[in-house]
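@channel sequence for tomorrow's demo:
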Amino acid sequence: MDLTAPRPADPGLLDRFGRQAVDLRVSLTDRCNLRCTYCMPAEGLPWLPNGDVLTDDEVIRLVRIAVERLGVTEVRFTGGEPLIRPGLTKIITEVATLERRPRMSLTTNGIGLERTATALLDAGLNRVNVSLDTLDDERFATLTRRRRLPDVLAGLRAAADAGLTPVKINTVLMRGVNDDEAPALLAFALEHGYELRFIEQMPLDAQHGWDRATMVTADEILRDLRGAFTLLPDPVARGGAPAETWLVDGHDALDGGPARVGVIGSVTRPFCGDCDRTRLTADGQVRACLFATEESDLRAALRGGVSDEELAQRWRVAMWGKRAGHGIDDPSFLQPVRPMSAIGG
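structure tokens (generated this afternoon):
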């Protein structure tokens, strides 16, 4: 492939490897009300100064540009913890009015979801992903350094009752901590009609303590699940979705279709060749990849008074330079300076 070829005159977010980004992940804050051990230290992190964080109107403008000029069809709001963003409902409401309305979802730790689920649905949100790594109170306190498991479980119920479906659960297994819970977590999800997604731990912790040798792999997760359930190949094409999914034989989802479980093997089963995501950090930086070591600043241009088309063009240029893959297996791989909480999931 000629990596020096000029970018074609296409309005979308193309890269040099034939991919087009249509899924936008928008981080609304780097702050969080948990202190998960695989994300940050117990004392937290130095948060972004308020003046560096995009305002509600700036977020809305950039999302509008992405949807109307760049071909984005899916928007996922992330953090940090997006539920602590005061303007969250306003942002969702405004994005829902766009002429080419994107499908909107939210990734959250679930704390506060019990009281906000209905308002989020009314604003235009379609569904939620909720992080839940254990069903045990003591393990939850060990993993998150907070005793908030009842709040997360209540948030899951509220989301389902409000209609923010399918409600998906994101789970990270840690060796020696909760790696024995895969079957129990799947049984819980099946009982309540949630869709479970296991995610391999990625090198995105602020402490830079990630070690591939101790990571619970996709193969190990599937082995444990198959010890308790019969998993069948999913006939639905994966497309650009990060999760490989399987049908859980003998179980139905709430909508009457087959129940599914997924594994996101970002490290051992990378899906970079089909990646269709672009990312916007809370301080207005475009990231072409979760593991990118470079960013493109839209905030400065936006506050400098440039036009929508100029912002769109800067975004196109940023995505054209996207690499073929994240390169975790390459000896030269460098973990991003920013942790997951500052990038947005």
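heads up for whoever presents: The two ends are 30 Å apart (CA to CA).
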